[in-house]
Design goal:
Elements (H helix, E strand, L loop, with lengths): L2 H10 L6 E5 L2 H6 L1 H14 L4 E5 L9 E2 L12 E5 L1 E2 L14 E5 L5 H9 L6 E5 L12 E2 H6 L6 E5 L6 E2 L16 E7 L5 H11 L6 E6 L22 E6 L3 H12 L6 E6 L7 H11 L1
Parallel strand pairs: 1-2, 2-4, 3-5, 4-6, 6-7, 7-9, 8-10, 9-11, 11-12, 12-13, 13-14
Helix pairs in contact: 1-3, 7-8
Length: 294
């Protein structure tokens, strides 16, 4: 079935549509984009869509197609998942008052648009910002971690990939955050791989302002320098953390970070550690981690 047939079927449907998923291959993208716009426009005018998933992924190359403005008129949305689109909200956008889940992957978006979108989703509980193509193309288009967190007052589930922190400027006094993510229960940070203390500070900022965190999934790759910032966060405690999944490269700096988290999580019940270990060379590292858990 091609996208034109999908459009015709929607026109013939008499009943309501509350959930809609559309995954487009490159044929749809290249030759039938007009029908795609008409489908979204029809949904916005004729149906009370609550859950919408749009995936414009092209296996051959990354091409961002502009997200139809009519998406922003779907005022009853509770779940919105978008992949491989260029997103720019219209000036008339009044917000998604009922949106509880937002998933953005492989999208092209400015921080101004992202912050405006998030700040107009007052019920947002689940946010996922993933992929190296969620980035900023204009020089200087960055925001601080404080500006981001202010848009997430009731967030419970937060997932971000490491590249996201490249355009998040860690504030000059990161340990004095103006907001606390008191509702955050699950934190997933993928592929944290920044040279210097930027990635570590970003990690610790999120952890410090999440006092009720229960489950953390952390992936750390090369260049994560924990030693430069650990003294600033010596008072961090994860009193409610009971489950930890951590993946790291087994170098000394990353091992120190894992030890730091383990030592400050008194209620841990489940720990999963994935690393690359040379049995001869890294036995000391394993013994150190085991002692931390005791």
């Amino acid at each position: 079935m091609n996208i034109y047939d999908v459009y015709r079927v929607l026109l013939l449907r008499q009943g309501p549509i509350h959930e809609f998923t559309l995954v487009m291959d490159d044929y749809w993208q290249r030759y039938n984009y007009f029908e795609f716009y008409q489908i979204i426009l029809h949904l916005s005018r004729k149906h009370t869509v609550k859950k919408l998933t749009l995936d414009g992924h092209d296996d051959s190359e990354y091409i961002w197609y502009k997200l139809p403005e009519s998406v922003f008129t779907l005022n009853h949305l509770t779940d919105l998942c978008l992949s491989t689109f260029e997103i720019d909200h219209p000036s008339i956008f009044k917000g998604f008052g009922s949106l509880r889940r937002l998933d953005l992957s492989y999208v092209k978006i400015s921080t101004k648009t992202l912050l405006h979108l998030l700040s107009n989703c007052p019920s947002l509980k689940n946010l996922s910002l993933v992929s190296t193509h969620l980035n900023i193309w204009e020089p200087g288009d960055k925001c601080t971690i404080n500006e981001l967190l202010k848009c997430l007052p009731v967030i419970e589930d937060l997932t971000m990939s490491g590249d996201v922190s490249e355009w998040l400027v860690v504030d000059s006094v990161p340990k004095e955050l103006p907001i606390s993510l008191i509702h955050l229960k699950y934190l997933c940070l993928n592929q944290m791989c920044h040279v210097g203390n930027h990635g570590s500070a970003f990690l610790l900022c999120l952890i410090k302002c999440s006092p009720n965190l229960e489950h953390a999934h952390l992936e750390m790759e090369w260049g994560l320098d924990f030693s430069a910032v650990k003294d600033e966060y010596s008072d961090v405690w994860l009193e409610h953390l009971n489950e930890l999944d951590v993946c790291f490269g087994s170098n000394e700096l990353q091992t120190e970070f894992v030890k730091f988290i383990l030592a400050r999580s008194p209620k841990l019940k489940t720990v999963s550690i994935l690393t690359v270990v040379d049995r001869k060379q890294d036995s000391k590292m394993l013994k150190t981690l085991v002692r931390t858990l005791e």
